């Protein structure tokens, strides 16, 4: 391995491909049996997409975006022995507040799942008089306690770094509007206690490269490497036929992650396969989590396809970082600390 991966675990029981045959124009190889979750995976759930997986106690656990047959998304827990075949719990996650009262969001979508020290956090988008960030913590994936409204509306695409940075919990998010947001940069916020967030900084914005010229938003939890934090994110282009969501990559400074060290001017993955170009919302690839095997550097990316399916693509940290560096194009606002 060319680059060192820090603080990731060995991911066993997973059907890693022997070699990653990265296709032309991408460091990723799609899983040949995509989608891994098809339409109508269980009673009352019509579609599962933009979802997050983690390795926990010898099995894989997912916080799934389950679109119910009433059209409203909620978070469901999925269990899997191999990270590919999933059993979805029949009831959506019940969230509680600090006083042990049930505290349910009206809707919940695009979950990310991050382990920090001994706690697992789900971070998602929910209604707080408009789209806003939800955070809940769990130790056993049975009881989930919500942090009471950590952010004001409107905000989406929040994800936590997997460890404190300079002794502070650190989050990326994307301020937005209440609709289909035709703008958006990635910002960073910090907190001593996970409840009160501040010291907001600008991380990165849209560029003149058309695939990410409308808005961007963080994807999986950043991965700590010898080059910096590897951030996989989504970038959106506005076409005459609607938005197109692609996947981008950047490397952020380890101690000051509001500074971008490298950023790929070219997408890492864009909608191409039929399950990505056709579905409930065509032309969407939307990454929410990755598994990274510290021993081999192999990486599995879980992404939603066309707001309809859950899919997988494989790569290695070396391939992704080299792709980003070889196509590096950073602008002035990338290299600023982002504090004004
Ligand atoms: C975004 C989010 C995502 C969705 C995407 C494409 O605004 O709502 O959940 O995948 O739009 O429809």
Task: Give a verbal description of the structure.
With about 350 residues, the protein is mainly beta. The chain has helices spanning about 275, 315-325, 330-335; strands at about 30, 45-55, 60-70, 75-80, 85-90, 95, 110-115, 120-125, 130-140, 145, 155-160, 170-175, 185-190, 200-205, 215-220, 225, 230-240, 240-250, 260-265, 285-290, 300-305, 310-315. It has a five-stranded mixed β-sheet with strand order 6-10-9-8-7, with no helix packed on it. Strands 15, 16, 17, 18 and 19 form a five-stranded antiparallel β-sheet that branches. The longest helix has 10 residues, at about 315-325. The mean pLDDT is about 95. Beta-D-mannopyranose binds next to strand 7.
Show unreliable segments. Answer: none
Structural class: mainly beta
Counted by DSSP, the helix tally is 3
Biggest beta-sheet profile: 5 strands, mixed
Helix content: under 10%
| Measured distance between first and last alpha carbons | 39 Å
Mean of all residue-level pLDDT scores: 97
**Any ligands, ions or cofactors bound here, and which?**
beta-D-mannopyranose
Can you tag this structure with a few keywords?
22 strands; mainly beta; 340 residues; 3 helices; single chain; globular; binds beta-D-mannopyranose
Task: Write a brief structural summary.
The protein is 5% helix and 44% strand.
Note the topology.
Blueprint: E1 29-30, E2 45-56, E3 59-68, E4 73-80, E5 87-88, E6 95-96, E7 108-116, E8 119-127, E9 131-138, E10 144-147, E11 155-160, E12 169-175, E13 186-191, E14 198-204, E15 215-218, E16 223-225, E17 228-239, E18 242-252, E19 260-263, H1 274-277, E20 285-292, E21 298-305, E22 309-316, H2 317-326, H3 332-335
Parallel strand pairs: 6-10
Antiparallel strand pairs: 1-22, 2-3, 3-4, 4-5, 7-8, 8-9, 9-10, 11-12, 12-13, 13-14, 15-17, 16-17, 17-18, 18-19, 20-21, 21-22
The structure holds beta-D-mannopyranose.
């Amino acid at each position: 391995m060319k680059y060192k991966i820090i603080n990731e675990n060995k991911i066993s029981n997973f059907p890693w491909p022997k070699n990653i045959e990265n296709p032309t124009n991408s460091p990723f190889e799609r899983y040949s049996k995509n989608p891994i979750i098809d339409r109508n995976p269980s009673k009352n759930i019509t579609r599962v997409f933009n979802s997050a997986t983690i390795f926990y106690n010898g099995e894989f656990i997912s916080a799934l975006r389950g679109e119910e047959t009433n059209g409203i998304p909620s978070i469901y827990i999925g269990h899997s022995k191999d990270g590919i075949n999933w059993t979805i719990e029949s009831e959506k996650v019940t969230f509680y507040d600090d006083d042990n009262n049930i505290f349910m969001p009206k809707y919940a979508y695009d979950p990310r799942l991050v382990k920090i020290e001994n706690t697992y956090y789900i971070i998602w988008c929910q209604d707080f008089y408009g789209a806003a960030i939800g955070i809940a913590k769990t130790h056993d994936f049975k009881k989930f306690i919500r942090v009471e409204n950590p952010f004001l509306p409107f905000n989406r695409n929040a994800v936590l770094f997997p460890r404190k940075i300079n002794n502070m919990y650190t989050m990326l998010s994307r301020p937005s509007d209440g609709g289909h947001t035709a703008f958006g940069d990635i910002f960073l916020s910090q907190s001593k206690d996970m409840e009160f967030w501040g010291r907001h900084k600008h991380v990165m914005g849209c560029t003149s490269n058309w695939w990410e010229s409308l808005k961007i938003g963080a994807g999986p939890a950043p991965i700590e490497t010898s080059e910096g934090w590897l951030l996989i994110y989504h970038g959106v282009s506005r076409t005459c036929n609607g938005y197109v969501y692609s996947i981008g990559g950047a490397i952020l400074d380890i101690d000051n992650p509001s500074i971008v060290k490298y950023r790929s001017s070219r997408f890492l993955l864009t909608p191409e396969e039929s399950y990505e170009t056709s579905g409930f919302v065509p032309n969407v690839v939307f990454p929410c989590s990755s598994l990274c095997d510290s021993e081999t550097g192999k990486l599995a990316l879980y992404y939603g396809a066309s707001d309809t399916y859950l899919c997988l693509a494989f790569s290695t940290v070396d391939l992704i970082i080299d792709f980003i560096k070889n196509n590096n194009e950073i602008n002035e606002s990338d290299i600023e600390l982002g504090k004004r």
